[in-house]
Specification:
The protein contains eight helices and eight strands; from the N terminus they run H-E-H-E-H-E-H-H-E-H-E-H-E-E-E-H. By secondary structure, it is α/β, with parallel strands linked by helices. It is globular and about 60 Å long. The chain starts with 12 loop residues before the first helix and ends in an 8-residue tail after the last helix. GO terms for molecular function: methyltransferase activity. Keywords: Methyltransferase, Transferase. Pfam families: TP_methylase (PF00590).
């Protein structure tokens, strides 16, 4: 289940109840404040952060995720009422949840996911954008670079995990200015270098403000990025009418306001 983005305030009543009544709770939360809050709801909490590389160790994240899933499934197999509490939405850029649910169901156990408030939900609210006005596209930054995705510059484009853009080894948690420059050159096929983009980071605590930093696309390689940075690229062109479809529908552009 998802805890939402802000400490305690964005968790659903149902998800909180699952935590309170669980035999064991596994957690992946962003900070010590969140971890301590969780232990007030249930004293039997196991922090999955322990499976990440420690003290300069080089470790493939696939191995880390496999260890996390095994820990969760061991509790399930032992007959314990098991909850995994994940920061934000548990199904968005969180493969551990999907892997654990799939494996549990394959072994005959009952398992499900409860949604949480995601960084995307916070982004639309903090920036005052209704994505329904022009639509939006959303990609993980490295996947966008590695594959032939073609963005629509009339919509909002979200690139997630921009701080590791171009990283393919699954052993590093940062990118480089050279990799970001390659991304800028790629995006320049559809967006002018002077086009304003936004680095966004949702607030974790009620006393924090979200990070909303506006800069030209050309300046992205020099920007300060963190693991929770998301890149928003607003539309660079106006929506274009599909005159052939409008004619078939008997609608004129003037009818659309």
């Amino acid at each position: 289940m998802g805890t939402g983005l802000q400490l305690a305030g964005q968790i659903s009543v149902l998800s909180r109840s699952y935590i309170e009544h669980a035999d064991i709770v596994f957690s992946l939360l962003p900070d010590g404040f969140s971890q301590r809050w969780l232990t007030k709801l249930n004293s039997n909490v196991i922090n999955l952060q322990q499976f990440y590389a420690q003290n300069g160790e080089v470790k493939n994240r696939r191995d880390t995720y496999e260890q996390m899933v095994n820990a969760i499934l061991d509790a399930v197999r032992a007959g314990k009422k098991t909850v995994c509490a994940l920061y934000g939405h548990p199904g968005v850029f969180a493969c551990v949840s999907h892997m654990a649910i799939t494996r549990a169901k394959a072994e005959g156990f009952s398992a499900k996911m409860e949604p949480g408030i995601s960084a995307e939900a916070c982004l639309w609210a903090d920036l005052g954008i209704d994505p329904g006005n022009s639509g939006h596209q959303s990609f993980e930054a490295s996947q966008f670079m590695f594959f032939n995705h073609v963005p629509d510059p009339t919509t909002h484009l979200l690139l997630w995990q921009i701080a590791i853009a171009g990283e393919h080894t699954l052993t590093q948690f940062h990118t480089s200015s050279d990799r970001l420059q390659i991304l800028v050159e790629q995006l320049n096929q559809w967006y002018p270098l002077e086009h304003e983009v936004v680095i966004y980071e949702a607030a974790n605590l009620p006393i924090q403000a979200p990070r909303i930093e506006r800069l030209p696309l050309a300046n992205l390689p020099q920007a300060h990025l963190t693991p929770i940075s998301t890149l928003l690229i607003p539309p660079a062109k106006k929506l274009e009418y599909n005159y052939a479809i409008l004619a078939k529908l008997g609608i004129g552009p003037e009818d659309l306001g």
